[in-house]
Amino acid sequence: MYSLKEHKERREQFYKRMEGFWPDLYNVEYALFDYYALTKDEAAAILNVTNRIGHIYRKTARLLRKLPDETLQLLGFRTEAVPYLRLSVLPQETVIARADLAYIGGEFRLIELNADTPTFIRETFDINERVAREFRTQSPNTGAAARLALALKSAIEQSFCALRGNRKPYVVFTSHEDHIEDKETVRYLQRLSGMEAAYVPLHQLRLIAEDIRLNDGSILKRGLYDHEGKRIDVLYRQTYPLEHLLDDRAPDGEKVGQLLLQLWKEREVALINPPSAFLLQSKAVQALIWNLHEEENSFFTEEEHSWISQHFLPTYLDEEYFLAKKQTYVQKPAFGREGDTVVIKNEEGTPIVADSQQTYVNETPVYQQYVSLPEAVVKTVKGYENVKLLHTCFLINGKAMGIGLRAGGIITNNLSYYLPVMIEKG
């Protein structure tokens, strides 16, 4: 064992070598210089469960596209988004998605699926491998970064082909420039793709709504442009949620976010993740899946019903079930991130724990059975700390890979730690 002082020094020296990484966020420790060991069977189970979850969601997407507008609105989708939800341009609904899992009674169960704008990517596919080398251990994600790179390249090429492009595409990766986690996650994906691409912050993008005839007689085509006036073919928006895009307006009040979606619909620009990923983002989709399972609907096969029973949690659009059963439950917004606006309620419906941030109070609420996450002791710069573990696993072009761990309190939020994960020796 070594002292806390030595631990701080080793952590600082290690993460100093990670260019463009954020070991501290909001002036507090984020990335732990420690790791948690899974057995090989546990790692295999996480991948298997995530593949099954991905299968259920992909099948459900086909049903969602057939639902009337009013039903989609009940699932939390705004009226402005509905015209874009039924379109599919890629073989997979989402390029990068992340499942958040709870380990309960020897089984991994889905807390939620972030299908549209998951982060925690560089931690899982890059930093985890470096921690493994530092501690001379085995990572469960060996080789996953190379597979992610192939998926990124494929998605970009397929998206450009959907525009009927037969030349070299101009690809731009974008994010808010002033948020280090968002910016460096996107820059990592840009490098990993291996493609010739640019990084342009969101505020420097420009939309042209109609063709413009210039003084020299040439035509400036409607579309999306960068700050130098170059027309963009593929926009990679990994960390910018589509529901935020719907509200984007220019200084003159023009609804530029909705204009961008219209340009995508008319195949003037490609978006990744595509809007089809947003179709699966609503946590109310989990309620729909659970409802179909509870009524033993023939939409799912017998095997698929067994997967839902085994790997999903009871989830509803009202809280009556939990009040009648006298069970503790979680209220969360249909569209929300990092634990924001999550409330845990007791069997009488009284809040007992609530996240300090309440940004999404106007979103459609979803109610889910509360489960207690497993606990572990980790070493921080302040000493040993007891934490709760949230297991995560990515779906890359529909295939499970990239296992991670968040460590924090009863609600996993943006102040929870990143805990590297390894395979148990022997």
The global form is globular
How large is the radius of gyration? 22 Å
- Biggest β-sheet strands, sense, barrel: 6 strands, antiparallel
Helical percentage: 25-40%
Average pLDDT across residues? 94
Beta-strand content estimate: 15-25%
CATH architecture of one domain: 2-Layer Sandwich
Q: Note the gap between the termini.
A: 21 Å
- Uncertain spans: none
Number of helices: 13
Secondary structure category: alpha+beta
Keywords:
six-stranded antiparallel beta sheet; single chain; five-stranded antiparallel beta sheet; alpha+beta
SSE topology:
Layout lengths: L3 H13 L7 E2 L2 E2 L6 E3 L1 H25 L4 H6 L7 H4 L10 E9 L2 E8 L6 H15 L8 H19 L8 E3 L6 H14 L3 E3 L6 E3 L3 E2 L5 E2 L2 E3 L8 E3 L5 H4 L10 H10 L4 E3 L2 H5 L4 H11 L7 H10 L3 E2 L3 H6 L3 E5 L9 E3 L5 E4 L10 E5 L5 E6 L2 E14 L2 E10 L8 E2 L2 E3 L3
Helix pairs in contact: 2-12
